[in-house]
Design a protein that fits this description.
The chain is α/β, with parallel strands linked by helices and 202 residues long. It has a single domain, classed as Nucleotidyltransferase, domain 5 (2-Layer Sandwich), CATH 3.30.420.10. 60% of the residues lie in helices and 17% in strands. The chain contains 5 helices and 5 strands. Strands 3-2-1-4-5 form a 5-stranded mixed sheet, sandwiched between helices. A hairpin with a 5-residue loop joins strand 2 and strand 3. Helix 1 packs parallel to helix 2. It is elongated.
């Protein structure tokens, strides 16, 4: 499975591509950072991010796109820009029929380092080690994008099993509800018929 990881942002948007193999084996395919100038208007900054994401998707044909979920940030303006950048990437993927998954920073850190509170240096070090890279990916946005892709490769089987289990549970509930409705309808019909026969007997 090929996964495109995206660490969304307006000033720097990290994009990383990895191939997931058997077990927990992952291989780096490509990594980079999309930059937009702060003095550019918001619409064009988002367009630049979207165009770059589309080029990556068309060039590498990922099976899934993993985007960091904006969990909480002290700077509301930064959080909004991050969410908007992630949104245009998700839209680009949806237009191509590519599944999109969102992972929180703590989920990514826990998957890659075993510690949901790991700092950026620890994440970068583990990404470098996991992928067997000779040089650590820089800046941190690039390493975070690869970490997102790795996280999804490792979490996807679990997420898929959970989704299937939830779907089966929902189907079972629907069948049970339908059976109850049929029983109520059948009971109502019998009661109605019994009342009519009693009236005729009288």
């Amino acid at each position: 499975m090929r996964v495109m990881g995206v660490d969304p942002g307006l000033t720097r948007c990290g994009i990383g591509m990895v191939d997931g193999g058997i077990g927990r084996k992952v291989t780096a395919v490509d990594v980079g950072v999309v930059r937009t100038p702060q003095d550019m208007d918001l619409a064009n900054r988002l367009l630049r991010v979207a165009d770059a994401a589309e080029r990556w998707m068309d060039a590498h044909r990922p099976d899934a796109v993993a985007i960091e979920r904006v969990f909480s940030q002290h700077n509301v303006r930064t959080a909004m820009g991050t969410a908007q950048a992630g949104g245009v990437v998700a839209l680009a993927a949806a237009r191509r029929g590519i599944p999109v998954a969102f992972h929180t920073p703590s989920e990514v850190k826990a998957a890659v380092t075993g510690n949901g509170s790991a700092d950026k240096a620890q994440v970068t070090a583990m990404v470098t080690r996991i992928l067997g890279l000779r040089v650590a990916p820089k800046p941190a946005d690039a390493a975070d994008a690869l970490a997102l892709a790795i996280c999804h490769c490792w979490r996807a089987p679990l997420l898929d099993r959970m989704a299937k289990a939830e779907a089966q549970a929902a189907a079972a509930r629907a069948r049970y509800t339908e059976r109850l409705a049929e029983q109520r309808r059948a009971g109502g019909t019998r009661n109605s018929g019994g009342g009519q026969r009693k009236a005729v007997g009288e």
